[in-house]
Every structure is written in C-alpha cells, then in structure tokens.
Write a structure and sequence with these properties.
Length: about 280
Amino acid sequence: MLQDGTEIVPALWSTLAAVAGFCATASGFYAINDALDAKSDRQHPVKCQRPIASGAISVRTGLMMGVLLPPLSILAAGSIDASLGWILFAYGMLQVFYNLGLKRCHGLDVMVLAGGFTLRAAAGAAAIDRPISVWLLLEVFFLTLFLAFIKRQCDLQTATNNHAKDWKSPAGYHDEHELDWGTGLSGGLAVVVFVMYATSGHAREVLGPGAEGLVFLTPFVISALLRFHRRAREGASDSPLAALLEDRIMLLSACSFGLGLVGLLAFPDLREALDGILMTSPE
C-alpha cells in the first residue's frame, strides 16, 4: 500500500491493462494504416521495408488485424476500468478519422498524432485513478508534435537523398523550410512548457522548495531537440532509440538531464540550497 492508501496490486493491474490495451489498439490501427498506404510506401526507400509494403504480411492480414484488435482491446480495457475504456475508445475514434482522411490533411495529421500520445498519458493517470497534471498533457502534446514533424522531415529528406521521385508526402509536406518552422515551433513550445512548469507552484508543491532548479536542465533539453532536428535534416532514422545509440552528443544530453533530475529528486539539501539562491514568486 502506498502512503495515500492506494493498493499497489490493483493499480499495477490497471496500469498493465492500459499498456496492453494501447499496444493492441495502436498495433491494429498501424496495421490498417500500413495496409492502406502499402502502394505509396513501396515508392519510399525506407517505408518500403515495412511488413505489408515489403510483402512479408499481406494487405488482407493487415486489415484483419486492424479490424479485430482495436475493438477487442477497448472492450477488455473497459471491463477492467470504465474510464480507461472510454479513453481507449476516444483514441480509437481519433485513429479512425486519421485513417479516413485526416492523415492527408496538412497540419491536422501531426496534431492528431500528438493528440493520440496525449490520450495515452491520460490513460496512465486513469489506470491508477489519479488526476493528471495539465503540465504533463501540454508537454506530451508539444513534444510528440515535434516528433511528428521530425518524422515528416525524415521521410522527405530520405526520399530526396535517394532520388525517390515517385514518392509523395500524403499530407503534402514538400517544403523543407516549412518543416523546419514546424519543428522549431513545436520544439520551442515544448521547452517553454518545461520552463514554465519548473517555475510553477505545482512543481514547488510536488518537489518542495528549490524545484525551480529544474530550469538548469533546460540546456540539455534544447541540445537534444537540436540534435534530433539535425539528424532529420540529414535523413537519419527518426527513432529516438537510434538517435541515442548513434549520436554521442544526444546521449550525453539525455544522461546529463537524467542525472540532474535524479540529483534534484534524491537530495533535498540540494533543493534547499537552490531555494536559498534563487528568487521565487511569493506563495
């Protein structure tokens, strides 16, 4: 049992159900998306390696997975926790509209993707029956919006580098400068939200005095975003894991951020020292 009286086993079971439900639902819609885009993906030097586009899985099998997995996982999650089931249902409807046409709507496609990941964060809070911070929702939305633009940029740059003239972006992203603006805007907003949270009363309430020390981790966030954008402009993989394994500066930034965060969380004396140095707003 946790300090607030929450039973660990039921909370853990609900959390696992949320993870499994979203994995199954997302997999089903990914299969539908790949089945519908198989012809276009075969024209792209990287997307042609996807299971359906490459022929490893038939279009029919992909569509069957897409039809069966989402409703079954939504019903299963709903039987465990009603709020979790409704969030999964909302996620499923968002994906239905995405596959029906929003993925071809310039600008809306990336916001739908970011909205889907934001619903995943909300599902995690619903699984353990806890309210979710608006700061977390905003950070997840803008960070995943940045990653969505990065993916579009990687797709375009890879096609350009490999002279794949027959491939066209479904949502019409053909201007590198436009994508630069999108990544800059979303990445900048992600940084702004992080700084605003670090200096908010909510952070101080959760972490205690000295929580404003989180702002000193901002350079590592900016460094990681800049390196990710540079990789996209070069046509490298849009996978965060690949970026960490292949880019030493990005790995250093991520490790430095993690160590700094652990230091602030694990050492109250450090937060108290920062609280004595930093000027904060009155309570």
